[in-house]
């Protein structure tokens, strides 16, 4: 058990170091456990003026996400931007169900880039963790194309680490029930 606690402490320390070296961040913030951990660590190691949390809203997203994200940002004193995305209006989104994730992420990443330019914050961040990359996902190459940073992967953080650290930070009440934020994903898979 001591070894596990030591591992968690090392990963958290590394995560703090990684995020502090960014100096600023525009975070894709769903209000889920992964992006909540990044937001909480960012609030500890960066000046709040150097962080913008961005939550995408559209008919395919859960309303609870927006509300939870807004509450968390308010609690942590972090600027929060809600962006309205229109991935569902893309004809390919309807025609090719297997491409939906790519289309949605591309719209999100473009929006993050726009927020980055408007706020002069240069690091685009998302909350993918090491367990997520075990699954082959087409969005992984897309995140590289847009220069999206993934600090949880850089720090070697897995889902159970996220849960443990959020609990230690007193944020376990913000861990929502397990479901994907994307309604079409639930239908497809």
Detail the topology: elements first, then pairings:
Layout lengths: L1 H21 L2 E4 L4 H13 L5 E7 L5 H14 L2 E6 L6 H5 L4 H20 L4 E2 L13 H7 L5 H4 L4 H10 L14 H6 L1
Parallel strand pairs: 1-2, 1-4, 2-3
Helix pairs in contact: 1-2, 2-3, 2-8
Word description of this protein:
- The chain is α/β, with parallel strands linked by helices and 189 residues long.
- The chain has one domain (2-188): HUPs (Rossmann fold), CATH 3.40.50.
- The chain contains 9 helices and 4 strands; from the N terminus they run αβαβαβααβαααα.
- The chain has helices at 2-22, 33-45, 63-76, 91-95, 100-119, 139-145, 151-154, 159-168, 183-188; strands spanning 25-28, 51-57, 79-84, 124-125.
- It has a 4-stranded parallel sheet, with helices on both faces.
- β1 (25-28), α2 and β2 (51-57) form a beta-alpha-beta unit.
Features:
189 residues, alpha/beta, Rossmann fold, four-stranded parallel β-sheet, 9 helices, globular, disordered C terminus
């Amino acid at each position: 058990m001591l070894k596990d606690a030591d591992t968690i402490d090392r990963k958290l320390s590394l995560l703090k170091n990684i995020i502090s070296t960014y100096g600023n961040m525009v975070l894709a913030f769903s209000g889920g456990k992964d992006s909540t951990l990044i937001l909480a660590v960012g609030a500890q190691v960066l000046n709040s003026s150097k962080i913008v949390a961005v939550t995408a809203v559209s008919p395919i997203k859960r309303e609870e996400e927006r509300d939870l994200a807004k509450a968390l940002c308010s609690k942590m004193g972090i600027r929060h931007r809600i962006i309205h995305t229109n991935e569902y209006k893309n004809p390919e989104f309807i025609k090719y169900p297997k491409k939906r994730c790519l289309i949605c992420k591309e719209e999100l990443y473009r929006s993050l880039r726009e927020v980055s330019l408007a706020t002069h914050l240069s690091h685009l961040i998302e909350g993918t963790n090491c367990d997520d990359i075990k699954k082959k996902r087409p969005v992984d190459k897309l995140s590289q194309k847009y220069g999206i940073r993934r600090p949880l992967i850089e720090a070697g953080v897995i889902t159970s680490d996220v849960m443990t650290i959020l609990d230690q930070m007193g944020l376990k009440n913000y861990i929502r029930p397990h479901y994907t934020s994307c309604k079409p994903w639930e239908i497809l898979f």
